[in-house]
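This section describes the prediction task in plain terms. A model, or a person checking by hand, is given the sequence of a single protein chain and must write out its three-dimensional structure as a string of tokens. No templates, partner chains or ligands are provided. The sample shown here is typical of the held-out split.
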Amino acid sequence: MTAVEKTSPAQKWRWLIALIITAAGVLALIYWSPQGLYLWLKAFHIISVIAWMAGMLYLPRLFVYHCDAEPGSKQSETFKLMERRLLTVIINPAMTATWIFGLWLAYDSEFYREHWLQAKFVLVILLSALHGQMVRWFRDFQNDRNKRPAKFYRVMNELPAVLMVLIVLLVVLKPF
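The expected answer:
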């Protein structure tokens, strides 16, 4: 059994319970439909983006350090654990929440018709694709199959920041 496959029943139940609580909260908001729902959704979208970006900026840095660890060593196993927790507890849920709240906001505000939001959407798709690529690299490390040098991950560490800057500029400036 590989390190990726090691998931206890308790971890699976925690994930399911968290999903049910989140779904119940979203449904409660829809049913309740408070006066400032848009602002609540916007706040949760921003919180989700911050968590997603924090993870997207930190995971490649962990890969840089993991490259220096001997496969199978205690240090390597520690990095595997840190990477798995970061991805499953922070990055994946934050990306999912970012998409849910973002799409809801775009629909509710009808900004989806604006060109700046369409450009932002393309950049967020690229960020999501990078997320998927990081999952692939994560699996390589988990199975001791990484073939890339630390320098590669140092360069990849800059991509989320560049995409983030472009996205923020589009949202704030709305240039078109």
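For orientation: Helices lie at 9-32, 37-67, 74-109, 115-142, 150-156, 159-173.
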